Amino acid sequence: MTAQQNALVLGASRGIGRAIARRLAAEGMRLCLPWFDWPESAQEMAAEFSSHLVLRADLRKPENVAELAAQIEAEFGCLHVLINNIERGGMPIVHGSYSRPVNSGQWQLELESTLHAKQLVFEHCLPLLRRAEQAAVVNISSIAAVIGRSGPAGLLFSDGYAAASRGVASLTETWARLGAPSIRVNELMLGLIDSRHGPGTRGWSLLREAERAALLEHTPLRRTGRPEEAAEAVLFLLRAAFMTGATLRLDGGFVLGGQQVPELPPGVL
């Protein structure tokens, strides 16, 4: 990966996005790092990435995304990398039912941030990606798309978030066709990652010890993932020059479940 490539990294004010931004900066990339809420985290990000482009934008609003793309064009001219890492998924353990008055906008927030904002960013950045000789997009999604609100993770994955996450796969495949041959589009599907559905989140802290143990027992690798591991997976997808329209699952085997493989029986023949 050469120096002076340009990357737009969403969600870099916290957790996984921050780890990805650090990894790409270490690769010599110039970064654009938008933020909207979590002002204290955004201030930390701005201080750490003071030589990069940091700006505020509500990525759910088309006019804000259009302005973001215009600023990237003015500063960078083109984009080589888009890390589509934006979501706002409510956890049942935190929010409870959608019917609660306090959750009146929660369903819409989950779909707008997890799915629609990704579409807006890709649409407005597509001309910038096409200006690069070769470009790559990584859509960040969740295993909630596969398992929904079921099993031990049913306390962490809400229905709206799961539905929006499933929609990301359709966008990934459509955009891979649209971008070929110069723009590769792949998806990184995450399981329980620290700061994202694991330790470091409010939901994880609200779980009982037995509920946390059940989640780890359901994970063959018996642990949660680290943001740095997600960043390494992103880098792999950016370097995988013959991969597009694919989904890489980074979940410690959670989707497989914790079932053991029995010894083969002796048979009767």
Note down, in words, how this protein is organized.
The chain is of the alpha/beta class. It has one domain (about 5-250): NAD(P)-binding Rossmann-like Domain (Rossmann fold, 3-Layer(aba) Sandwich). Helix content is about 45%, strand content about 15%. The protein has 10 helices and 7 strands. The protein has a 7-stranded parallel β-sheet, sandwiched between helices. Strand 1 (about 5-10), helix 1 and strand 2 (about 30-35) form a beta-alpha-beta unit. Helix 1 packs across helix 10 and helix 5 runs parallel beside helix 7 (about 160-180). The longest helix is centred in the middle third of the chain and has 26 residues, at about 105-130. The mean pLDDT is about 95.
- For the record, the CATH class is Alpha Beta
Judged by helices, strands and strand pairing, the structural class is alpha/beta
Terminal Cα span: 57 Å
Mean pLDDT over the residues = 95
Q: Would you report the number of β strands? A: 7
Number of domains: 1
- Uncertain parts: none
Shape: globular
What's the CATH H-level superfamily name?
Answer: NAD(P)-binding Rossmann-like Domain
Helical residues, percent: 40-55%
Question: How would you characterize the largest beta sheet?
Answer: 7 strands, parallel
Question: What is the fold named in CATH at topology level?
Answer: Rossmann fold
SSE order: EHEHEHEHHEHHEHHHE
Radius of gyration, in Å, reads 19 Å
Strand content: 5-15%
CATH 2nd-level architecture: 3-Layer(aba) Sandwich
* Spatial arrangement of strands, main beta sheet: 3-2-1-4-5-6-7
**Contiguous helical run count:** 10
